[in-house]
Queue: 2 jobs
Job 1
Amino acid sequence: MFSRPLLRFVPNGTKINFMRGRFMGLATSAVLSIASVILFLHPGLTLGLDFRGGIVVEVRTQGPADFGQVRAALATQHVEAAGVQSFGAPDDVLIRLDAPPASSADHEARTQALVDSVRHAVATLPGAQVLRADAVGASVSAELFRDGMLALGISLLMILGYIWFRFEWEFAVSAVITLILDLTKTVGFLVITHFEFDLVMVAAILTILGYSTNDKVVVYDRVRENLRKYRTMPLAELIDLSINETLSRTLGTSTTVFLAALPLALFGASLSSFAWVMLFGIVVGTSSSIFIAAPILLLLGEKRLRRDSRPPR
Amino acid sequence: MMYYSRLKLASVVAVCFLGVLLCLPNALRQPAPTVPWRQIHLGLDLRGGSYLLMQVDMNSVTADRLRTLADGTRQALLGAGLGYRDVATDAHAGTVTFTPRSPSETEADLKALRAMPMAVPNEFAVAQRPDGSIAVTLSPEAMRLRATDAVTQSIEIVRRRIDATGAVDPEITRQGDDRIVVELPGISDPERVKHLLGTTAKMTFHMVQDNALGSAVPGPGVSLLPMMNAPDQKLPVADHVDVDGSDLTNASAAIDQQTGEWAVNFTFDSIGARAFAATTQANVGRRFAIVLDNKVVQAPVIRSAISGGNGQISGGFDAQSATDLALLLRAGALPAPLSVIEQRTIGPSLGADSIRAGMISLGIGFALVIVFMALFYGRFGWYANVALLANLVLMVAILSLFQATLTLPGMAGMLLTLGMAVDANILINERIREEIARGRTPLAAMQAGFERATSTILDSNATALLAHIMLFAFGTGPVQNFALTIMIGIVTTLFTTLLLSRMLMVRWYARTRPTVLPV
């Protein structure tokens, strides 16, 4: 352990024929992504407070929560809660209110005033304390949503531009197509798990995109190197060789990032859903480098990347 | 590639040592006030507290400016002995328009208006319009300047009001063109602060038009204002401001000795005192109204001239409302109404839970990565681990140096940085393994490993950096903090992997000259 490594992921010189299963990989990915898009359309993402607007108050009651009591207390303050539910521990209660419709006059002021009413209601419950109280007005939530989507879109464009600049366009296009496929699957994961989609989730998705790109860049880097080195090798064989050569690294780095994010998923309190999405993204991003990005590169580059060096007929 | 000069060695070690020094203030107590002591601030989510996002009502800033411009226009025309009719303001266009008494006066009107004093060069333009009316138009620059001033001034007033509440370490910052962020650590119920900041506190003194009492439609220059304690009752009050509340020097809450009720005592400055004395002297026996934010607090009858510059307001206050009003009057009126559009509060127990969760995750994640690297990469894995520790130290050091704020997402950013940081070491090690398998000597293999891996490392970090720059640019609060820690982490990662861990490997090689590499 202190001098020679005790464990290895893959032995030296593996020769797994990944490209033979390329249509299988692409088809699986397509099915998963289409399913995700359907899930996105119906039932759709659970929007978090950032993007939906409204009020969320988390309360810790003395002893196991009595929801009837909480609802009664809210009723005395004339607050109509959209949801009173438990989360985490049995003594934790989450009170959710919708924002007044943005069309009504002074809806912003009313949103903010509602929080105080909820606080007053909670104050009448013996021993209860407010853990968190957030109120986001309609104008702010609309802006946060726009900014989040802009950050996602511009990041994708910048990644496209960067890879284009550093490699050939075939690399950039196949990377971005793969990233979009990764992204749709992550959205599908969010729909299935009912994790709230908010700014923190945008951060998770952007981190996944960055990580996934990094993974693809490493494989592409090797493809480019081998393109110069083996001038006559067919592209399919060459991509297979490159994936095999970088396989140990791909699995190693995925594992360390996975291990770093795992405790956050298990113990990370409010960030645990963020970390689960990260873990999902790491698995998806790693497998897509091998099974998606490489086959797309092969499809796009079969004619072009090898044009000058194809063996004469 | 395989040689490090003593100078380079010394500087890498020095940077790491400096990093450790910079981390110390977070763990120790400041020995003396003169010792520079920079440490990381805990974010509201870890510390507990309130975050308020406030919007400055820009429409009212424009409306206010147009009202004074209209007033100024009337004064200028009257001063020059000219007449006018149909004075109107258009907030959207930023204009005051009127029709001259007769077309023959147009030239004189223009001349008089162009002589009006301007706060900034070209603040407004005066022009005749095709229909014969005259328009005074504020320039967009002047309006923008005034809006900026209003926000700056609002921040100042907000700061004064919050300081007066005794809040510890409040952070008040501008966001965008017309927003103010107020962060209040330790205050987990911001209701009182919201009330204090939501009050404009514009106090003015007007005469009550008793002759219009009871009529539903007040005459020109008179408005019906509701009483503060009885909003159904309305009082006809002259629009003209006799004394302005901004001319106060002091205000305090006290119990009135005669009535035993809470009241607010105030003192005018010399301008206010003179105006107050003159007004009261001229109007003995009439009623004057104390108006706060367009509501009549009180309308007492003037018994005699008040010359001392002291006054008292009593209008059914309790201890809290009297104290708050005194505080607001001392701090001054806001130039425009402020409204809260987003608030987030975190209780102290949740903050403590989050710190614990973050620390546990960071500790376990760090340990898992270290064990992994040791098991899978042996000696070179341990070198990577040394670099990893240095990476953590340097991240904390940079955050401390800039006295940055650390939030729970920020801690997640540090953790993910640690997970990604060893990627560079893995790339180098795997490359060395490959080169050894191809039959290269240890020296050649290490050289090739460093050389080939460097461009890959730079590429992969550059793409991660791009994504997080976007996140920082478009995110807010905790998300920005996440992006910031990752961006700092990318820089420290490049340093620790490209310099530190590589140097450890090279020095080990130079020392032992091994025939077989531990890969």
Job 2
Amino acid sequence: MKKVARHYGAPLLMILPSLLLIGIFVYGLLGVNFWTSMTDNHSAAQASGREPVAFVGLTNYIDLLLTEDFRHSLANLVLFTATFLVGAMAMGFLWAWLLERPLRGGRFFQTIYLFPMAVSFVASGVVWRWLLNSNQGESASGLNRLFQMIGLDVLQNPWWNNITFGIVAIALPAIWQLSGYVMALFLAGFRGVPDELREAARMDGASEWQVYRMVIFPQLTPVLMSAIVIIAHMSLKSFDLIMSISSAAAYQTKVPAVDMFLFKSGFDYANSAAVGAFLLIIIAFLIVPYLVQQHRSRTR
Amino acid sequence: MQRRNFLVLSGAGLAAAGLTACGGSGSGGSGGGESSSEVEVFTWWAQGSEKAGLDALVAQFEKDYPDLTFLNASVAGGAGSAAKDMLQSRLQAGDPPDTFQAHAGLELTDYIDAGQLEDVSDLYEEYGLTDAFPDDLVTLLTVDDQIYSVPSNIHRSNVVWTNVAVLEAAGIDPTVVPADVEAFIADVEKAAASGVTGLSVGTTWTQVNLLEAVLMADLGSTAYNGLWTGETDWSGSDVTTALEHFGALIELTNTDRDGLDWTDATQMQIDGDAAYSIMGDWAVASFQQADLKDGEDFGYFPLSGGEEIFGFLADSFTLPVGAPNPDGAKAWLDTISSQEGQVGFSLAKGSIPARTDVDTEEFPAYQQTAIESYAQDAICPSLAHGAATPVAWLNDVADATSKFTTGASDVAGYQEELATIAESNTSA
């Protein structure tokens, strides 16, 4: 017993403050959120505690799923995440692969590709709103105008104002901003592969492609996993970029995070919390397998 | 090696993700108002003519109450949405400012229901406001025999603005006011046929502004006001007609509307790219700043279906429960409701005074017409600006409208949705 205390005592004391803070402000408030989402707290009077709230179980969740508008938001979120994830992964990986070899000017391009990440989503959103202007023909501006100038008129499109696929247009700036970051992750992964392994493979007669396929790519799996988790959870939380290109009320670019904001501004705390809970559950689907995988590889 | 690398990477990743995820939600200007001489006034008047108006009020306040200090707690951004968001948190946390700006009317319902506002009817007696404001306005402000805010100024929401040169080029006589919405649509079509945008509009709330103007004109004041009390049936055929008119007008607007604010839409007219727009009368300031001449370069008329209607919204100030300095807040309410305060503020902001007993000679031409109609016309509360409904109802209508204007629903679906929204909001 004494041995246990000596072994764990000091470390436990050291992490206790952060444990308490996280316990209260993260997990405690998550609990409050789940509780709120299962009440009928739909009005200002209830929000300020003047009128009682009642427990209603999962009613809010079911009601939300039954509304077409919320399903539209969820569909938008899936579409946005898929595009953002695939786009950022593909671009980031491609750049990392190209820049992995010691090329002249490689550093320069690394910096160039990484820079967009330094811009805040709100600032880049303002510029992209103009680039993605949906006017076509004579009054076109932004990218549509560019397409006209280079003779690719057929590529003109309404961008984010398309009802079904508008959200994909908003994934473009997100990809533009985060590809460089994914590239940096992969570059570090590439550099983590010892040269001896490559040389050994070459000695065994592997072609350059085989070296990549059989030796290097398998070792990038952990990097790939963390890149996916980082990009996907950012995508699920996306709010600022969408709000600064589009607006809260715009139907074509609704996602759950925007719904959450709107419910809150209308004093509908229960539905706001329920949307938040949906987001948390979706993120959990992503994070939990990742944590399990990490845990396994560590204990192995 | 690999693991360490990975740990560093994921750590960096989390930090970076954290950094990008942290939007700038400016730190709250809490505190303040502790000393009894300070009056913390919460507004979203942070720039342009609104700031000029606030400055005029402050000057008057300092003259009226030299021993009180005005503490500016204005929050910029999002046409007031950033401010409202922050105000909501502060009120919930029991840390109210001494007084805050709010649109007069049902937008206050939520605060009233939450027990966050004091009844100020006594001040109406004390400052003699009941007779100074028109009866219609006092009725609009009264909730269960109590009044919770004091209006500082009035705006009109249902004004059609025209670019005279563009109209003439399209062969439309700019001096003829269309008799009803049908005639107006015909004019807009004619203008659009001449190669410009017929009607310029911006993001969703400006579309709701357009919707309310069409509803007022097509339904008339009684039926329009009944929409919000449950007396008018949202499923009725007259509403269908109005929504069809609205749809026809949206067809004639610019395709990039959802990316524009009202200022951009007005700018299209100033640049000669659009013939018409429907916007509240704060737009007049944009035309004047661009050196366009009233009557020669730009014109205006209320959208009407025969009846003269004044689409009404008012800025007002409140007395929150638990204000640190209620006497200071009352002093502020005195200044903003006084004759000098109202005239000075409206002259700077481009609105009209809520009081009818003030000298209006100083006001420019547009405001003169608004003052005249305000005294004569039927008054309809604005939907887009929170006078007609609580926030939740307006949010729902905005959602449905966005759905309709992007083409995700047709007139029938839109009307059905509006009817459902009205039902759920009146029963709640």
